[in-house]
What does this fold into?
Amino acid sequence: ASRTLRVPLFPEIGEHWDMHYRAIAAEAPKDAKDVLPEAVDVVEGGIRLGTIRYPAVLMEWIDGPTVLQGADRAARAGNTVVLRAFAEALKDLAGTLRRGRMVHGDLAADNLLMRSTGDLVCVDLDGLSWLGSPAAVSREVSVAYRHPGRSTSSPQRDAFALLVQYVSLAVLADDPDLRRSYGDPVSTHGGAILFSSWDLRDPLRSRTFADVRDRVGPTTAALVDDLQRACLGDASEAPSILSAVLQLPNMIQNVPVDAAEETTTWDLSRVIDRLKTHYPEQQETRRLPAVPAQPPASESQGFAVSGTVTEDRERLREAIAQGNDAEVIQWAVRLADDPVAQLYKLDVERVLAVGYRSRIEQAAAQGQDETVVLLAEQAESRQLPLDATSRRAVRNARERIEVRGKLEAALTSNDRAALADLAVSGELVVLGDADRASLQRVLQAIEWPSLQRALETDEDSLILEAFDEELFVDGSGVPTHVRSRLMLARERVAWISDVRTALKRRNARELARLYASEPEGGLDRLRASERTRASRMLRQQAALDALQGAMQTGNDISIVEALHAIERTGARIEDRFAWTAVQGVMRRATLIESIVAAANADPADDRQLAHLLPAAKTMGLMHDPLLQGELAWDRLQEVVVRGAALRRIRRAIAADDDRAIRKAAFPDVTAALQQLTTEERARVDAALQRRRAG
It folds into this structure.
């Protein structure tokens, strides 16, 4: 069997692309295998193109037309049987995908090929997914099959695309000639069978929808109404509408969900975790280090327990002299019941107090507030005095712990009001920059009300002004639906700016490109005058393009029709050479129009024809398509000759000259006598009889 080699457009997605196609080959649902190429084999190591290595996959070559190609050929041939067969194959495809709980992601008419068996096969599998599949490598959607609501759900995209194609095929089966007027050429990538993206965007004002309803039967008209309802409704309604049209189980059940889709519920723990990834130094929550009542073993290593009290006392004195608080504690505890050792109590307390002050100072310098408080509590339990510096450090640590507790409680409960109160009260100042992620959340809470008010206005510019990019880093702390609204606002503001620039520069081609990629609601955000100007520019450019195409074919009729369109739209022909060519066409058209008018006059204006025919011959119009049949060149010349003969006869009759009448009337090679009135014919017959009598 023939095979085809496929590589991605960008080698950077290689590992993901490779994993995606390996999953298709090994794990794709068996129930849906019939709608996939039979062989999907990943090329180990990929292939090298130039200096770049691309991942690659070998797939079955489907030797059959796409739905777009097949529908175009069948419609132009008027073969309604084939069109209905394509519609039934599309219905079978939808059922197979439904049973396999699989979605394609971009079911455009040129991504579906027909086998010789009459079954449809899906190609371009970058967006393919099923329950438990890895994330797809692409979510691009062909414009002609995209819901006006720009749904990001693959099942909804599939359902809407299938609905558009099924209704298009049903309409063409009723009236194949519609394909000659609507739809895209088969060479268009992602081209429409019948309904363009503009038709789907506004079916109530679509010429295609209106024309289709006038030319199809009641059953198909009901399908067109279903498609219109899907266009005007939310994208989530498309699967249920398709299920009703194709009489399938509801297509929205048990289908995979895009990995990119997130819940709009505010999950504080996930947000905090995400924030912490931006500040690695804050990932570890400050824990209270284990500060034992006795010094750690590392501090007392080498300490040997003496066997006599006297030696223990000597060890205690040495520890006091050295200021070694760890050993002082060890020996003081051992000699707790020794009356002599009690004489060193003040020295022991002095050494221990110095040790605690040192440790508190060290913990405070390291920002370990909990350790500072614990050390202070231990010193208090031993009734050890602390100096002013240590006491101030302890007070500050306790204040920070209290404020941090309030902050953490507000963060945990997502209480933006409490966060804002903390910021306004100034209490957060004591924390400094110790917890940047939390402080960022506080600032977000302060800015949130203004962002909410901007969202309520639904005004893109106000929303973008209220959103602080530096504060909400990577959209952190922002619900999914708000992020989507911000992205839409950015897209629309940029699009409107580009449209206005194109209008200012009168760049119709750029304007057409922008209209083809219009974000949701983009047109509605333009001023009415801007929409009017844009529509006029697009119509003018379309008329100029039609003229250019007609001039390339050399078809005068098409050129004249294009000129009429240019006149209606007010477009201007800027090309001097094109204008010269158009003038020549107009002269030819005017001359032919005058000839036709003179020939069709009652009676025919032979004098005018006698004046026009030489000019037409000079311009080479003797074989023009309009001068055929009754207006053929030979017949027009006969009209001229017959008219001249008729005038000679009538002049002779007016002169009452029998000889001149007979000379003008006979022989009657042009059948001029048939054009005489009854009285004139009687006069000619009388002249002929008198000659015979004489």
Residues 316 and 332 are 7 Å apart (CA to CA). The first helix runs from residue 14 to 27. The longest strand covers residues 40-49.
